[in-house]
Specification:
- By secondary structure, the chain is an alpha/beta fold.
- It has one domain (6-243): Vaccinia Virus protein VP39 (Rossmann fold, 3-Layer(aba) Sandwich), CATH 3.40.50.
- It contains ten helices and eight strands.
- The protein has helices spanning 9-15, 21-29, 46-52, 65-69, 108-118, 139-150, 159-163, 189-197, 200-209, 218-224; strands at residues 36-40, 57-62, 77-81, 94-100, 119-130, 174-175, 182-188, 230-243.
- Strands 1, 2, 3, 4, 5, 6, 7 and 8 form an eight-stranded mixed β-sheet that branches.
- The two termini are 23 Å apart.
């Protein structure tokens, strides 16, 4: 499993979009028992916190100590530095296992072996994430150019799973029919730029070229933003849910 985000964990927690309530309502409706949940690749803990409002016990694991340090603390969440592929002995079977914007980094076979060991027979595995954002108006052209032209060569190969809408990841489970959902955020120009700055491709560009690729589009962002203080961005939510 790769770690592309420890170096900017605080920005990741602050500027990344959050998942809609409709996603959690759907996931919670799938499992009758709500005793144990495991949020694998928890990052800054945003999903774990939502699980903790409904499940009695939540295990939240990540390979990044820096990311875990940004996670909110709750009495019924145990945060642990642990990879997705690492074998462990759970205190009980998990009714729900979630992976948010992370499964494409995993060794699929080893992680899924883990899932088979710890998922409750009536439990569910849910892997989800989001694709490239969309926005009305000229700024969308800037987004497309930045993604497809400026940063294209700097993405890790695993990014293709997101571009494919998670349809090409191996998923050897009995699948549920899932709803179509989106993430909607309203951002100022500064928040938009800060979000772009969290992209792993931007970090790779900086490491390889010694400059920030945002400098190449900053004038276009200024010209294309328009007179509104905030714009609404929509991210397609990618979701696959399965059972044993």
């Amino acid at each position: 499993m790769k770690d592309n985000f420890s170096g900017h964990a605080a920005d990741y927690a602050k500027y990344r979009p959050t998942y809609p309530e409709g996603l959690y309502r759907y996931l919670f409706s799938l499992v009758a028992e709500k005793n144990n949940a495991w949020d694998c690749g928890t990052g800054n803990g945003q999903v774990a916190v939502h699980l903790a409002t409904t499940f009695n016990h939540v295990l939240a694991t990540d390979l990044s100590e820096e990311q875990l340090a940004e996670a909110p603390k709750m009495d019924n969440i145990v945060y642990r530095k642990q990879t997705a592929e690492e074998r462990f002995s759970p205190e009980g079977k998990y009714d729900l296992i979630t992976v948010a914007q992370a499964v494409h980094w995993f060794d699929f076979d080893r992680f899924y072996d883990n899932v088979r060991q710890v998922l409750h027979p009536k439990g569910r595995l849910a892997v989800f994430g989001y694709g490239l954002m969309q926005v009305h108006g000229p700024i969308d052209t800037v987004v497309q150019y930045f993604y497809k032209e400026v940063t294209d060569a700097y993405w890790d190969p695993e990014r293709k799973y997101l571009d494919d809408g998670y349809t090409t990841i191996p998923f050897p489970f009995k699948e549920e029919i899932v709803p179509t959902l989106h993430i909607k955020v309203s951002w100022t120009r500064e928040q938009f730029l800060q979000y772009l700055n969290t992209w792993s491709a931007v970090k790779h560009f900086i490491e390889q070229e010694g400059s920030n690729p945002l400098d190449l589009i900053i004038d276009d962002v200024e010209k294309s933003w328009g007179s509104e203080e905030m714009l609404e961005f929509r991210f397609p939510l990618l979701l696959r849910v399965g059972r044993l």
